[in-house]
Amino acid sequence: MGAIQVTVTIRNPADPERSWDGLFLVDAGSTDCVAPASALRGIGLAPRGRRTYELADGRRETVDITPAEVEFMGEIVGATVGFGPDDVEPILGLTALESVGIEIDPVSQRLKRRPAVRMKAQRRAA
Questions:
Q1: Is residue 60 part of a domain?
Q2: Residue 45 resides in a domain
Q3: Which of 5, 24, 39, 119 is deepest in the core (most CB within 10 A)?
Q4: Is the dihedral of CA 120, 121, 124, 126 positive or negative?
């Protein structure tokens, strides 16, 4: 599959006027998003935790993470964003895509909207 990129805006949820725009690689193999640490700090975001990720080459890396507003294709979602190195290619992970009902069409290699966001029905206990 070829590379799919999309323009993404990362916003500070506590101060939405502070934002950063970048061209993100859409990565169905990544759960969360990643952006340059300097860009995240530049909009006032600070690490709120750490998470260990398994990279494509099998290595594990622990990085700082924070919740942020992520906007793309006219949709806004709260997502976990990792503080990557300043030269990192920003990544838009699968959780953000699925949260707004967007999927990767493997035939056209483009992003497409599903008719509805998937939600499993909850059954009430009898």
A1: yes
A2: yes
A3: 24
A4: negative
Q: Does the residue 122 lie in any domain? A: no
CATH of the domain at 75: 2.40.70.10
Number of domains in the chain: 1
User: Is the pLDDT assigned to residue 1 strictly greater than 80?
Assistant: no
Quick: pLDDT tens for 38-96. Answer: 999 999 999 999 999 998 889 999 999 999 999 999 999 999 999 999 999 999 999 99
DSSP 37-104: HHHHHHTT----EEEEEE-TTS-EEEEEEEEEEEEETTEEEEEEEEEE-TTPPPEEEHHHHHHTTEEE
Higher pLDDT, 110 or 37: 37
Burial string for 47-58 (b: 16+ CB within 10 Å, else e) reads eeeeeeeeeeee
